[in-house]
Write a structure and sequence with these properties.
The chain is of the alpha+beta class and 311 residues long. Helices cover 28% and strands 24% of the residues. It has six helices and 17 strands. The longest helix has 24 residues.
Length: 311
Amino acid sequence: MTEALLTTSIPDGRLVSRGKVRDIYETDDALVLVATDRISAFDCVLDPGVPGRGIILTQLSTFWFRRFETTVPNHLLATDLDGHPEPYRSRPELDGRSVLVKRLRPIPIECVARGYLAGSGWKEYRAGGTVCGIPLPSGLTESDQLPEAIFTPATKATSGHDENISFERMAGIVGADLADRLRQLTLELYSEAAAYARERGIIIADTKFEFGLDDDGAVVWMDEALTPDSSRFWPADAYAPGRSQPSYDKQYVRDWLEASGWSKEPPPPTLPAQVVNGTLDRYLEAYERLTGARLDLASFGSAKPADAADS
């Protein structure tokens, strides 16, 4: 794979939305989520994309959804093109980067678990000793592991940044029982995933989950799962509290943008080749460490010709 897939155009496909990363199509009773190779930071889509990035995100999410499917139902219906209906089935550019998923009623909350003091949490702690309003012990330093993981919900913004909110406000939005269930589920998933990743040399400092409700009102895990886009992944062998950490996630891109002198107003600077390649290398290493399998990006997209007929 040599070129990034920045957008999709499916003849006879029904496009629902085009986000920062995903193009979403619909069928009569399901959705097709397509992870492109677009990459965003500071609320801007950057140029160029990262070739194969969407495949890595999709395959890693699928790995985690399958791993925890006995803990919580997930939205997956089909992960291979053969399980997609037409006109999506015969589009080789969707191979590896698209999934067919259930239609759900999204819960309008980002469910965030934090196990380490980083990012906006570190900034808030320095200012007042709290993270998202939750008091923490004094004397912690940047990147310290917290005494126990904390749940910090946020409202989901259609544009711009999500807004951190209190658990009480979350309960007012979704109801006390559902809020309790989502907090428990978020911390359980994070705890088990973090322990698994730590054994494979990766610290999951924090992550966010999204959930929806099916027709029966059951909670279903949706969107993406424990990817470098939705999490902070740190190499365990380089971990040292008291400073920011090297990472396998988009922080590498953010750090370059911060150092570039960009004002964070559009348009963003063009990413140099070394940043694009460095990002891809980090995403691939994270995937391979976590799954124990090599991901051959070049193997996707060639299984079916573009004009393949439905048999």
